[in-house]
């Protein structure tokens, strides 16, 4: 990384925000130098979420892993306790087997610290380098060019069950402990399914829209988001796609059985509680509804 000019915020599409903690400040009352590498490493982990790539699963699918070859830090100014910092990160170059990332740490518009991280894509068993897969190149180049990292598609279970099913099993059966025989039902065959897929074709969020009842109220269910990618907006994308489909076919409203832990998420998207809380599959729920 050049030390002649300072990066600007506008050089970066991606930012990770953090606040300096007490444990990160040294006797000089500034952030201890070694913590800056931790800041950039934390930002890199969030960068993969911005790409809609759950890191471990994605590297497994790409048949490799990334190993740090070199890390260089350029100190220009110090961060202090309680500073709110934005860590910019971008992929600068992709070689045959290497990837070069540049990082910039900012306090508002002031550039404080820069970083260059060089990774090598390698066989995880032997840690010998191998060419960066074209699929990963395309994801990185697409992101830095401003492209969307996911697409939302809708269709029947025969079309989308192959990608939606594994995600539902991971979330509801493996993570939440819901019995297999309660997860799969006849409604899958009659529902419209929505899936947000990343650029590797992996489902990162899914849900289904059941036919409307006699009063024109359709029900949305089986909303699931990859555990690693929650809070990135993928669930909202699927929900909005299912709402649009319900509206297009003339439904008057949509309802869902929201887990109480997700109640605020649905409330933010315009859903209101209906009735009293109840338990379903051993998990607290509440019915919520939104007029279309």
How would you describe this protein?
The chain is α+β, with helices and mostly antiparallel strands and 292 residues long. The chain is 28% helix and 36% strand. The protein has eight helices and twelve strands. The longest helix is centred in the middle third of the chain and has 19 residues. It starts with 13 loop residues before the first strand and ends with a strand.
Brief synopsis:
Helix content is 28%, strand content 36%.
Alpha plus pi helix count: 8
Largest sheet report: 7 strands, mixed
Mean pLDDT: 95
Which structural class do you get from the secondary structure elements? alpha+beta
The radius of gyration over CA amounts to: 22 Å
Please bin the fraction of helical residues.
25-40%
**What's the shape?**
globular
Low-confidence stretches: none
Q: Please count the beta strands (DSSP E, at least 2 residues each).
A: 12
What is the straight-line distance between the termini? 52 Å
What string gives the helices and strands in order?
EHHEEEEHEHHHEEEHEHEE
Strand order of the largest sheet: 6-7-8-9-10-12-11
Strand content: 35-45%
